[in-house]
């Protein structure tokens, strides 16, 4: 599958800036952090957990790809043309008037496959911890959220300790607090 695309470089930069704002400082600068590109004939969606940005573009075909966020960000910032024109295919991107990028991190996605976990736009640690019930540990790693889950678990343990510290004088046990919080995390809906 080869798709030729042409997009306004400033619009792409603005979309990527908005995507980066939704991410933590460490993740947005990580060379391994992936976003999902969903390319249609007249638009492209940039997706990361909790954010979906639609941009206008011209494309010769349709496709979905897993793509390194930092690579696309660097391209949008370092190219000095009005439009960014490129051809994307399996593990390769050729930029008109720019470099040819062969990268094992560029990966086509089939059908309804996604690299994104189900998270709301303004997700919290509670939503991230809820992913443990929806995905296996292997799937969490593939989705790239294992580190987010570990951080949320750390924050959860600290919050439980604080709650216990303040409520133990009333006879509340750590186990009771944990059960209540786990019920809320595992509950469907908000």
Description:
The two termini are 40 Å apart. A hairpin with a 2-residue loop joins strand 3 (43-48) and strand 4 (51-56). The chain has two domains: 3-108, DNA Polymerase III, subunit A, domain 2 (DNA Polymerase III, Chain A, domain 2), CATH 3.10.150.10; 125-186, no CATH class. By secondary structure, it is α+β, with helices and mostly antiparallel strands. The strands form two sheets. Strands 5-1-7-8-9 form a five-stranded antiparallel sheet. A five-stranded antiparallel sheet has the order 4-3-2-6-10. It contains seven helices and ten strands.
Write the layout of secondary structure elements.
Blueprint (H helix, E strand, L loop, with lengths): L2 E6 H13 L3 H5 L4 E6 L3 E6 L2 E6 L1 E2 L3 E6 H10 L4 E7 L2 E4 L4 E3 L4 E2 L16 H10 L2 H7 L2 H22 L6 H13 L4
User: What spatial order of strands do you see in the largest sheet?
Assistant: 5-1-7-8-9
- What string gives the helices and strands in order? EHHEEEEEHEEEEHHHH
Rg, Å, rounded:
20 Å
Helix and strand content put the structural class at alpha+beta
Write down the overall geometry.
elongated
Please give a quick description of this structure.
The chain is 42% helix and 25% strand. With 190 residues, it is α+β, with helices and mostly antiparallel strands.
Q: Which descriptors would you attach to this protein?
A:
190 residues; alpha+beta; DNA Polymerase III, Chain A, domain 2; 2 domains; five-stranded antiparallel sheet; 42% helix; elongated
